């Protein structure tokens, strides 16, 4: 009969080899309430189109890494950024973009459904 310590060791080895050690990130999302009044701003809204493999800022294709160095970095406080989701965009792709946009606190990000 196998000793108890051998069974525990095998279970420990199994769980160590099958678990994943991924770092998960939190992205705060807030839904607008009914009857919410939008703040008036003189700045024109910026449009970001998100596809599974593409990213377009006001119609011009841009890389995800170049987003921080684009015109969004110099946007004035309160600038509205509309993120449009294309077909087949997964949650991880959206999260990657939202994490990059979090570095620009002047933007008011709104995600549009696809």
From TrEMBL:
Please give the superkingdom of this protein's source. Bacteria
Keyword Cell membrane belongs to the record: yes
InterPro entries from the entry? Answer: ExbD
Query: What is the membrane topology listed in the Swiss-Prot or TrEMBL record?
Result: Single-pass membrane protein; Single-pass type II membrane protein
According to the UniProt entry, its GO molecular function terms are: transmembrane transporter activity
Write out the entry's keywords from A to Z.
Answer: Cell membrane, Membrane, Protein transport, Transmembrane, Transmembrane helix, Transport
- Classify the main location: membrane
Protein localization: Cell membrane
The question of whether Cell membrane is a record keyword is answered with yes
GO CC terms of this entry: plasma membrane
- Tell me the GO BP annotations in alphabetical order: protein transport
Family, per the entry?
A: Belongs to the ExbD/TolR family.
UniProt protein name: Outer membrane transport energization protein ExbD
- Originating species: Sulfitobacter pontiacus
């Amino acid at each position: 009969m196998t000793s108890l310590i051998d069974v525990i060791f095998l279970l420990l080895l199994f769980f160590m080899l099958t678990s994943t050690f991924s770092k998960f990130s939190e992205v705060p999302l807030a839904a607008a309430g009914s009857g919410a009044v939008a703040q008036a701003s003189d700045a024109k809204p910026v449009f970001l189109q998100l596809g599974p493999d593409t990213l377009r800022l006001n119609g011009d294709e841009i890389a995800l890494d170049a987003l921080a160095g684009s015109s969004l970095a110099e946007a004035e406080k309160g600038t509205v950024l509309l993120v449009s989701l294309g077909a087949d965009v997964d949650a991880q792709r959206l999260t990657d973009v939202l994490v990059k946009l979090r570095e620009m606190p002047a933007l008011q990000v709104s995600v549009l459904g696809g």
